[in-house]
Amino acid sequence: MQTPKTRRPVLVGALLAAVAAGGAAYAYSQRRAPLATVHHVNLSRYAGLWYEIARLPQYFEKGCHYVTAEYRPLADGRLEVINTCHKGEIHGPVKKARGVARAVDPQTNAKLKVQFQWPFEGDYWILALDPEYQFALVGSPDRKGLWILSRTPHMPLSTRRTLVTMAQGKGFPVDKLIYTDQPAGPLT
């Protein structure tokens, strides 16, 4: 039978183990540098159709090919978001998801929250953006979401490599990227 004196070392040991585990988790979170975004995004120029070139695996994009995202400005300053995916193959059945995006950092418009189902919102941070708004690197601060986007279905390999290298430098697991099948030309 344990007495209060014999239980004390067990409780102290358990407390020390919990503190050590918490400290390790804190130290790990501090090793990751804050995720930098672009300095400013003109949401009117960002609006329009984007093709997904690559992504980190997402449950809601499982089996998706020929993926696009279209952004349309709304009167209240938000963006309507229409994501389109062809299930199974490029010519597979179309699946669409509609949502809204709002800037949470109005100074830069580079940090957005996207909502497809109330009350859930996801982080959508613009990490790199071509000055002509022809390609973008988008991710989430937890490094679990990452997308390479282009205004055209295909992107020069050198540009894609540059964006992948940039994402790797920001702490994203680029070895897990899925390169999205896109059509070679207009679909008929």
From TrEMBL:
Protein name: Lipocalin family protein
Pfam families, per the entry: Lipocalin_2
Family per record: Belongs to the calycin superfamily. Lipocalin family.
Top-rank taxon, per record: Bacteria
Protein species of origin: Hymenobacter koreensis
PANTHER family per record: APOLIPOPROTEIN D
Residue span, Lipocalin/cytosolic fatty-acid binding domain: 41-182
